[in-house]
Write a structure and sequence with these properties.
With 202 residues, the protein is mostly beta strands. Helix content is 9%, strand content 29%. Strands 1, 2, 3, 4, 5, 6 and 7 form a seven-stranded mixed beta sheet that branches. The chain is flat.
Length: 202
């Protein structure tokens, strides 16, 4: 486990309420999934401190975990801020790297092209470093589609022409699986039809 010693000071709830979402803080790295007592992790508030109305404070760590804590509770780990004049030194968990979870489109992809792709990654980062944890290969049709988000009708007086916004044009129809749609909207995928402008020109 790789950690770094950081000189810091513990914040009171009043000090936390003066922080913004871009202020880097440290919260406990101890979670239900991974027990790391007396260890901290870099994090940011999920909303500006001035927006809190009491109760627990929620922060999102650099590892995308949400942690709730009560800064003034002496029985909890608390929230710390890096401070050269701080009275304590805390152990801060370092990042080992990143796990990529992405949709990678390889034009005309076959086993040979994927082998070359992995070989290039291993050459860049080290033969023993890059490991393929999960591989899901899927052929995609050579079709261009429009991806819309359409407002979900509510009530009996739902319109026959619901409101629609274009989100993307792509040659990868299942891209809609990776787009985060707005609350109250649903994805709609249609074959792409170019807009023809019949306006006469002079």
């Amino acid at each position: 486990m790789n950690t770094e010693k950081v000189t810091a000071r513990r914040l009171s709830l009043e000090e936390v309420t003066k922080l913004g979402v871009k202020d880097r803080i440290f919260v406990s790295a101890d979670t239900a999934e991974l027990k790391l007592p007396d260890c901290y992790v870099p994090a940011f508030l999920t909303k500006s401190g001035e927006d809190f109305e009491g109760g627990s404070v929620t922060a999102r760590t650099i590892f995308q975990e949400e942690i709730s804590c009560l800064p003034d509770d002496e029985n909890e780990a608390g929230i710390y801020l890096a401070d050269e004049n701080g009275s304590v030194t805390i152990e801060v968990l370092q990042s080992a790297g990143v796990v990529l979870d992405l949709a990678l489109f390889v034009p005309g992809g076959d086993k040979g092209s994927l082998t070359a792709l992995y070989a290039a990654a291993r050459q860049a980062f080290g033969a023993d470093i890059v490991q393929i944890w999960r591989q899901s290969l899927k052929e995609v049709p050579d079709v261009k589609v429009d991806i819309f988000e359409e407002q979900i009708p509510r009530g009996r007086k739902a319109s026959d022409n619901p409101k629609r916004d274009r989100r993307a044009i792509d040659t990868y129809p299942t891209r809609a699986d990776f787009i985060e749609f707005s609350a109250g909207w649903k994805p709609v995928v249609e074959i792409h039809r170019p807009i023809v402008d019949d306006t006469p020109t002079i």
